[in-house]
Amino acid sequence: MCSSRIGSGDVLDDVAALVAERNRIDARLARAVRAAELSQAPERDGLKSVASWLRGHLRMWGAEASRVVANGRTMEHLPALAEAHEAGLVTAAQLAEAARAVTPKRRAAAAVQGVDLGEIDAVLTAVAIEQEHDALIVVVRRYCNALDPDGPEPDPTEGRRMSVVRHADGTVSFHLHLDPVGAERFATAVEAHVQTDRPAGDDRTRAQRLADGAVQLADTALATGATPQLRGVKPQVVVKVDAEDLATGRGSAQLGSGALVSAARARWLACDSSIARVVMGPDGVPLDLGREQRLADRHVRRAAEVRDGGCVFAGCGAPTWWCDVHHVVHWLDGGETSLANSALLCERHHTKVHAGFRVQRLPDGRWHTWRPDGTEIRTPAALRSPPLVPA
């Protein structure tokens, strides 16, 4: 029966129908996201952009969230292509490629040169519907080059970008795109470490040696203190591990990013690191930082970083080095400078909280966030529990 169905082509018809339906849904999503952007809807939940709301509330990958936002804008400038997308004939990836042709700068250049965007829209739509994806890339590139025959603007930073993808096993993939001069600088710095680390019998591949060189470049910068301070503290690699696991080398440890490594790896890191003792209570809250005197601000901060791991505002997740230590009960109102009265908040959400939003750590161990009108901001994780009433 299976062979007959495949041979009849029905299964391929199903695939084609599903892709078309996905294209239509992607188009509806892009339109809705654009509407949310124009109405500044994320501000209701204390967030600056739709992309940040998609990441924090819907767990969307950063690059994908940015693409959906960009596609919503592109559909306004390329109505024919947008119509084909809504009809299921054009994919979201094709629309994202076409977006490069209608950036604000290129739209301005087209207006100066008298280019009819309607004609460009028609050409891009025809290519997207009738030809392979790579053909659209070529057409878009030719159009962009025609708008700017003298090449890109002299500012090299405009073309630089890096994406970071964290995998389930804790490993990370980087994609780095640099201008020629920036690439030369980076490659020279990495190569210096590659060439000074070539032991006899080295059987590493070129790719492995380059990766090791990049890690050594980071190690050198951190060790020499050449990196800028973050929130008044020198950048440092943080590893959280139970004292027993550190002593025995069994169990696991957690990096500042949340990635898990073995306790044996933590022991290896501890050979060339300072160790701070943090005693945790039964609910996972730090109780004692190994000092006899009253908590100073830097110690409160360290404890808050261990406990919170980043901005506690619902849907944010900004890293610790973006965050301030906020007094949940303002010290002018009698609030203490203590861990129990502290919350990590990024600069934006620290401002939001002082403007009417509210955060509180409830007995369930989770932080909750309320809008100025008293309603709670509910992320997908929070939706699994019943609504809470702020105290």
From TrEMBL:
Residues 299-351 form the HNH nuclease domain. The keyword Nuclease applies. Keywords: Endonuclease, Hydrolase, Nuclease. One of its GO terms (molecular function) is zinc ion binding. The keyword Acetylation does not apply. Pfam families: DUF222, HNH. Belongs to the Rv1128c/1148c/1588c/1702c/1945/3466 family. This is HNH endonuclease. It comes from Geodermatophilus nigrescens.
